[in-house]
């Protein structure tokens, strides 16, 4: 069993204050209940933003038996970008999963960073990014990946990498605690025993619930933005509702990893991957295959760019793809099917 990693070395006048702050943070993370994953992710996010330029932040969990990446927590600025799950691909998260070491955009291959699935502001690309592995303390297996990103180039140095890895190690310790309390490892083992159709059903149920929560959260954010100063209680209530939706989305997105039995009222989706696409998703898929950008698709379909991004995410999940380049061959299969 590996011991606690050392506090990153710093050469600043207030290094002692920094170390004290990190030790306080470590104690706070250790007190977070294992039943509150959103609180853990939020604390890690805040800790990153306190020390590093953090325009975007995500947590990813890796399901090794399915080679699938689950992103239960994604933030771009103040925007909570709902959970998503995708197969292992060619982006930086997949690179970290395969290599078990940090990937730093400052000095590593830009093609790896661009090979991932974007989140948040689809019109901008991160210019600086650190992706670090979340490892188990009691072995060499991997829980997932933690990442901080910035729209400003050249902002991350050696301390930033060491500090973010230190945060990832704190996350690993918290997940070990969950594991030791007969949660995480048992849940992952249980999910390995699920038949393929039940695994797919779990993902579909999770996605459906997350979509509903996303709509509620968006409405809450709209109410909060419209509330005047005279309606401060309403504004606070809307903000609390939005936070509850974010938390529920994070927890719902992790359902396929928990192996918990579903409600008896839930129904399994029997349609094939292509057949499961909605009419709007088919329209978006066709335009993706033609090489259209999100903005061009939004203009052609008279919808918002956020709506297009939402449809693209659903398409990628349902069709188990990671790149727009894969859509052309899929459209040929779609055109060969009888219209519904």
TrEMBL record:
Signal sequence segment: none
A Pfam short name: GerE
GO molecular function, one term: DNA binding
InterPro entries: GAF, GAF-like_dom_sf, Sig_transdc_resp-reg_C-effctor, Tscrpt_reg_LuxR_C, WH-like_DNA-bd_sf
Keywords assigned: DNA-binding, Transcription, Transcription regulation
Keyword Coiled coil on entry: no
Database matches in CDD domains: LuxR_C_like
SMART domains found in the cross-reference section: GAF (SM00065), HTH_LUXR (SM00421)
GO biological process: regulation of DNA-templated transcription
Protein name per its UniProtKB record: Uncharacterized protein
């Amino acid at each position: 069993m590996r011991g606690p990693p050392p506090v990153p070395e710093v050469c600043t006048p207030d290094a002692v204050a920094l170390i004290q702050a990190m030790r306080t943070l470590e104690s706070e993370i250790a007190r977070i209940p294992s039943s509150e994953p959103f609180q853990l992710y939020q604390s890690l996010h805040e800790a990153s933003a306190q020390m590093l330029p953090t325009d975007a932040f995500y947590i990813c969990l890796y399901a090794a038996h399915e080679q699938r990446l689950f992103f239960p927590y994604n933030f771009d600025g103040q925007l909570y970008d709902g959970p998503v799950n995708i197969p292992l691909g060619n982006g930086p998260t997949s690179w970290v999963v395969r290599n078990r070491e940090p990937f730093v955009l400052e000095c590593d291959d830009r093609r790896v960073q661009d090979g991932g699935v974007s989140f948040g502001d689809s019109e901008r690309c991160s210019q600086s990014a650190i992706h670090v592995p979340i490892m188990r303390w009691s072995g060499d297996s991997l829980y997932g990946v933690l990442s901080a990103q910035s729209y400003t180039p050249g902002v991350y140095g050696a301390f930033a990498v060491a500090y973010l890895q230190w945060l990832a190690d704190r996350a690993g310790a918290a997940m070990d605690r969950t594991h030791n309390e007969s949660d995480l490892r048992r849940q992952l083992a249980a999910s390995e025993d699920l038949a393929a159709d039940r695994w797919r059903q779990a993902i579909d149920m999770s996605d459906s619930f997350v979509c509903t929560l996303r709509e509620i959260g968006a409405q809450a954010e709209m109410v909060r933005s419209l509330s005047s100063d005279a309606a401060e209680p309403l504004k606070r209530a809307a903000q609390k509702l939005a936070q509850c939706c974010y938390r529920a989305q994070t927890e719902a997105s992790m359902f396929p990893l928990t192996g918990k039995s579903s409600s008896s009222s839930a129904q399994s989706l029997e349609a094939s991957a292509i057949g499961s696409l909605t009419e709007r998703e088919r329209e978006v898929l066709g335009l993706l295959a033609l090489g259209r950008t999100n903005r061009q698709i939004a203009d052609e379909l008279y919808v918002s760019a956020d709506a297009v991004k939402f449809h693209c995410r659903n398409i990628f999940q349902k069709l188990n793809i990671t790149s727009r380049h894969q859509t052309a061959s899929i459209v040929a299969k779609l055109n060969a099917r009888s219209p519904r």
